[in-house]
Amino acid sequence: MKAKRRVTTSPDVRRGGFQRGPTPRRKQSAAGSLPTAPTRPAPRPAAMPARIEAGPERRAPTIEVDLTVDLGRGLLLPNPILVASGTFGYGTEYGDVVEVDRLGAICCKGTTLKPRIGNITPRVTETPGGMLNSIGLQNPGVDAVIEKYAETWVGWKTPVIVNVAGESVADYVEVVRRLDGVPGVAGIELNISCPNVGRGGLQFAIDAGAAGEVTAAVRRATDLPLLVKLSPNVADVRPIARAIADAGADALTAINTLSGIALSPSRTKPLLGNIYGGLSGPAIKPIALRVVYEVSQIVAIPVVAIGGVTELSDVLDFLAVGAVAVQVGTAIFADPSIPVRLVDELTAVCRARGLGTYAGLIGTALPPKPGAPSSKGVEYRP
Ligand SMILES: Cc1cc2nc3c(=O)[nH]c(=O)nc-3n(C[C@H](O)[C@H](O)[C@H](O)COP(=O)(O)O)c2cc1C
Which residues pair with 22 in a beta bridge? Predict the structure, then answer.
């Protein structure tokens, strides 16, 4: 069944398109000069700076920008800049170098039922515009994750979303059952790019039936907010996204890494110990943009974009194709301060445009009604 679209029209949407609703909350500025609707532009020319330094007695009020985003089921993020699973550990490792409390949310390293030592080395290599990794979901297992980190997470303002992986529906359900009700766990992100042992090892993420089945089973097991992460390694992502939405996910995240290989210097074998690795970084951004663009048009639940975000223009691009938030991944390895900087820069751009919320930036590049999918080909137009 096609999911019902939950969008609100907005006079602020520039290209006659529509806007997905991250249910942004409005805050009242001290000067009471916020727009009356969250999506309506403030009565200020876009080019005019939000803050006018005109002397202490005649200083113009600074617009308070509301960046909050509701991912459903009570998962309200302070802002739409998250850190991606596998690139920020469990958050605790970065406490000395990053203002963790200023992030929108932390998606922690993939967590499985039993501890995993990960794949054999080499596990990472740089590639043009990105990197390949085959870490192999190294993690201490769900019980150790809860024991070691949950208490710290409780004290953070930033919600922690636990990324969950498994090899069977029962695996996912059991991990989620153990996380359910644990203080400090704000939500679940299902990494479904994992081999489904019950179906010959084919990934859950590449089959609409399997993706829907695991989502539905986890949905029954918990009331925690549930995000499900799409793989780009499919011919048509839309039926999979639909199946996940219909099975009760609260939000989609897109995308996971693309499957690739690199060669050893001697060219006698693949470089990575696991042969295959996941490609990430700026090189995959156009693909992530395309997936978010296609999926945003056909599901009503929020979409969180991931893939090659390194600077503000990337964030704005993903918002324009319908994402309500973004995750920063590989870029963190080069500079862990990027996500917090993006929060400041997004705030600044909203102020400069006289926007009380960033909602008006969402969906501006989407067509008025769903267009042809990329699976119909990229060269020919019927
Ligand atoms: C080293 C590394 C480890 C990752 N581990 C996970 C993981 O455990 N679970 C998961 O869902 N995604 C994992 N990812 C994928 C990222 O969360 C993200 O989807 C992907 O890297 C694309 O974003 P980026 O281009 O900003 O890095 C990992 C990525 C990298 C680079």
Answer: none
pLDDT tens-digit series, residues 205-229: 999 999 999 999 999 999 999 999 9
Q: Is residue 372 part of a domain?
A: no
Q: Residue 44 domain-assigned?
A: yes
Residue 1 lies in a domain: no
pLDDT in tens, 2-53: 333 333 323 233 233 333 344 443 333 333 222 222 332 332 233 333 343 4
Identity of the amino acid at 319 = L
Number of domain units in the chain: 1
CB of 138 within 8 A of CB of 274?
A: no
DSSP notation for 114-176: S-B--PPSP-EEEETTEEEE-----B--HHHHHHHHHHHHHT-SS-EEEEE--SSHHHHHHHH
* Residue ranges lining ligand 1, Cβ < 6 Å: 84-87, 109-110, 133, 135, 137, 163, 191, 229, 256-257, 280-281, 284, 306-309, 328-331
Domain carrying residue 77 = 7-366
Three-state secondary structure call for residue 187: strand
Find the CATH number of the domain harbouring 67. 3.20.20.70
- 164 contacts 175 by C-beta, under 8 angstroms: yes
Mutate to test the pocket of ligand 1, among 87, 194, 227, 291 (most ligand atoms within 8 A of CB): 87
* 379 is a domain residue: no
- pTM: predicted TM-score of the whole model, two decimal places: 0.86
- State how far the Cα of 43 lies from the Cα of 64, in Å rounded to an integer: 14
Residue 194 bears catalytic tag: yes
- Which two three-digit tokens encode residue 81? 């800049």
- Cα–Cα distance, 325 to 71 (Å, whole number): 9
